[in-house]
Write a structure and sequence with these properties.
about 400 residues, alpha/beta, Aspartate Aminotransferase, domain 1, Aspartate Aminotransferase, domain 2, 2 domains, 17 strands, about 40% helix, globular
Length: about 400
């Protein structure tokens, strides 16, 4: 008999009743160092005083009014994001998949309104992940995710990641834009080469295409800059954000330059819950922390410490790990043994992680993680790696 809660997820047998900073606690008193952060979502960790206070204060006033009326909290948040980024205008929604859907609509609409209705196709990349809606399944292009859901939504062409020649070969008369993740999260924590991002910007300018950036996992400070594309010194035309934007409260956003945003006029797009007072209060509280002087520089400093530690762990256990990879605090260990085995071993040592494609264990701690917690996590990984060694190697490792 099917359970009341649909069995869509392969859930671990863990239930957390409270959290504090980077730690989660079960009802029976066990504690875990959370290096999954709700899949790179709990950007300020758990029970952050500024975030929880902002949510509680706004909940006592008004949570939802709909976009039939002005929402001052959304106006404030949009102005702050515009001031801090390339964008001229922002649209708020509820999730990353919804943000990506809206971004593709904006790319198509902008081409249509500027005299190119034939341009509707978007170049995407092998290994990408853009969400679970029907169109975003097609943009992702993973046969496993597409299976059983009927005809694939048309309009997406896939080429190898970090391969500019393949991109240029795929451009045709119906190409409207390019959609890329600066770091492929679900695809195995694979960063785009910075020069590749620069070349994509130049290619879009050359062919009159719109550059769309999916920064759902890599954005909101996770790379050590507010958005990861900043490391390449370029700007996209339109960009999606979600996950860490409101510290765990459901929210997404599309940030766009005026040349794209101006074509999404009244009645062309909408959302019931997007940008409501409660969500925007949470996101403003996150920005209070992330945009504070020195915060992002310290994220970058701690990320480099973590990176060096991961490289060392991978080198110490070549029978378990092939390499370390990623950028900022979106890092991973490419495994030799099944990543599910490694993830279970980490959990047994009290460290939470997340699986990713290409047999990678993903490590995305809250942005507030301390040096001491990074050091503790690395020791947990070492103990977990020993659990995954063949018995003879395990004895030698001790």
């Amino acid at each position: 008999m099917i359970p009341a809660l649909m069995p869509t997820y392969n859930r671990a047998d863990l239930a957390f009743e409270r959290g504090e900073g980077c730690w989660l606690y079960t009802g029976d008193g066990r504690r875990f160092l959370d290096f999954g952060a709700g899949i790179a979502t709990s950007s300020l960790g758990h029970n952050h005083p500024g975030l929880t206070a902002a949510i509680a204060e706004q909940a006592h006033k008004v949570m939802h009014v709909s976009n039939l009326y002005r929402v001052p909290q959304a106006e404030k948040l949009a102005a702050r994001l515009v001031a801090a980024t390339f964008a001229d205008s922002v649209f708020f929604c509820n999730s990353g998949a919804e943000a990506n859907e809206g971004m593709v609509k904006m790319i198509r609409r902008a081409q249509y309104e500027t005299g190119h209705p034939e341009r509707f196709r978007v170049i995407c990349f092998e290994g990408a992940f853009h969400g679970r809606t029907l169109a975003m399944l097609a943009a992702t292009g993973n046969a496993k995710y597409l299976k059983g859901f009927g005809p694939e939504v048309d309009g997406f062409d896939h080429v190898p990641f970090n391969n500019l020649n393949a991109v240029r070969d795929a451009i045709g008369p119906h190409t409207a834009g390019i959609l890329v993740e600066p770091v492929q999260g679900e695809g195995g924590i694979r960063p785009a080469h910075l020069q590749f991002l620069r070349d994509l910007r130049a290619t879009c300018d050359e062919f009159g295409l719109i550059l769309g950036m999916d920064e759902i996992q890599s954005g909101m400070g996770r790379s050590g800059k507010l958005f990861a594309h900043e490391w390449a010194g370029i700007v996209p035309d339109v960009m999606s954000a979600a996950k860490g934007i409101a510290g765990g409260f459901p929210m997404g956003a599309i940030l766009a330059r005026e040349s794209v945003a101006k074509h999404l006029t009244a009645g062309t797009h909408g959302t019931t819950f997007g940008g409501n007072p409660l969500a925007c209060a949470a996101a403003n509280a996150v920005l209070d922390v992330v945009l504070a002087p020195g915060f992002l520089a310290d994220v970058d400093r701690r990320a480099r410490i973590f990176w060096r530690g991961l490289v060392q762990v991978a080198a110490e256990f070549p029978d378990v790990f092939e390499d370390a990879r990623g950028a900022g605090l979106l890092l991973g260990l490419k495994c030799v043994v099944p990543n599910t085995e490694v993830q279970a071993a980490f959990t047994a040592e009290g460290l939470l992680s997340v699986g990713a494609g290409d047999n990678v264990v993903r490590l995305a701690p809250p942005l507030i993680v301390s040096d001491a917690e990074i050091a503790e996590a690395l020791e947990m990984m070492r103990r977990g790696a020993r659990r995954c060694l063949p018995s003879a190697s395990r004895v030698a490792a001790k």
